[in-house]
Amino acid sequence: MTLATIPVPVPAAFGTANQPLPAVGLGLWKIDRPVVGDLVTEALRVGYRHLDSACDYGNEAEVGVGLERALTARVCRRDELWVTSKLWNTCHEPQHVRPALERTLRDLRLDHLDLYLVHFPIALAYVPFTTRYPPGWVFDPDAARPAMRPARVPLADTWGAMEGLVEAGLVRRIGVCNYGVALLRELLATARIAPAVLQVELHPLLAQAKLLRFCREAGIAVTAFSPLGAPSYVPLGMATAADSLLGHPAVVAIAAELGRTPAQVLLRWGVQRGTAVIPKTSRPERLVENLAVGDFALEQGQMTALDALDRGQRFNDPGVFGERAFNTFMPIYE
After folding, report:
1. What CATH number is given to the structural domain containing 39?
2. Residue 297 lies in a domain
3. Is residue 52 part of a domain?
């Protein structure tokens, strides 16, 4: 069984090419700058062709070094890669969208992206790159009480500038992160270029079946971030070890039945639902393990058992961490 890919539409500006989205990618959030360049090069060497980056991760310059090294060594060709990045919250005003992308392209050492996403449906006051980059969540970190500073920018205005990036040939596709059905409906009602991909938190504790069905019927591909659930959030105090799916009896039992690891079971669940998954790892030995989910399948009973774990448990919620970490109540899901 070969690893699945997920077709996504390419705007007419790019002709008839329709490069599929690799179903397993490497998420680059929280990978330390000193190691991420070598990790990217190694990931491409062992077979990854999908990288998920963002301005806010603070490591795109180092990712670019790893990418350039692999391309120069002919580990892979640029046209074999799917590279995603994201527009940060402080650059939602239309005049800031293209400069934000151009900074990302410069850091990644690329001339175009395969996908550029609006990172959150949250517009914050602009912070010049010369003041601070990446800009982060708070407007003034040195304030007595650092907080976010919201900006009044309609989502449609930001999207119009994103469409301009496609028309300029700088990105092949555009999409959004952390949108629900209502925001997607609003976007689709006015967009000249429909969103190609939605990236959201998805794992068996947060299955989001209705959102997934809506996207399937609307022709929007879905990428699942945090497909393993809690691990990335435990060090941040946003989850506890008890929340981990890697030790959940149902997951462990299925892994034992299949002779696979719990992580592989969780990733396979995501792929079989028709989503791409972007697990993060800083350990080279885990790269191969996470990629090796294309040569087995979960039986229907096993899928049903994992589906039954859904309890609407969201770990990445600005309505929770915004107040705790940044002194700002910023709900987007309720």
Report:
1. 3.20.20.100
2. yes
3. yes
Among the listed residues 63, 67, 72, the one whose alpha carbon sits nearest the alpha carbon of residue 36: 63
Catalytic choice (48, 57, 126, 233) = 57
Per-residue pLDDT of the chain (334 residues; tens, 9 = 90+): 346 666 665 544 444 456 789 999 999 999 999 999 999 999 999 999 999 999 999 999 999 999 999 999 999 999 999 999 999 999 999 999 999 999 999 999 999 999 999 999 999 999 999 999 999 999 999 999 999 999 999 999 999 999 999 999 999 999 999 999 999 999 999 999 999 999 999 999 999 999 999 999 999 999 999 999 988 898 888 999 889 999 999 999 999 999 999 999 999 999 999 999 999 998 988 999 999 999 999 999 999 999 999 999 999 999 999 999 999 999 999 8
Closest CA to 112 of 83, 134, 73: 83
The DSSP result for 224-278, as a single string, is EESTT-STTTTTTTSS-GGG-STT-HHHHHHHHHHT--HHHHHHHHHHHTT-EE-
pTM of the shown model: 0.95
Number of domains in the chain: 1
| Residue 331 lies inside a defined structural domain of this protein | no
CA-based radius of gyration for the chain: 19
Confirm whether 116 is a catalytic residue. no
- State the residue range of the domain holding 277: 20-326
Structure tokens, 284 = 């080279």
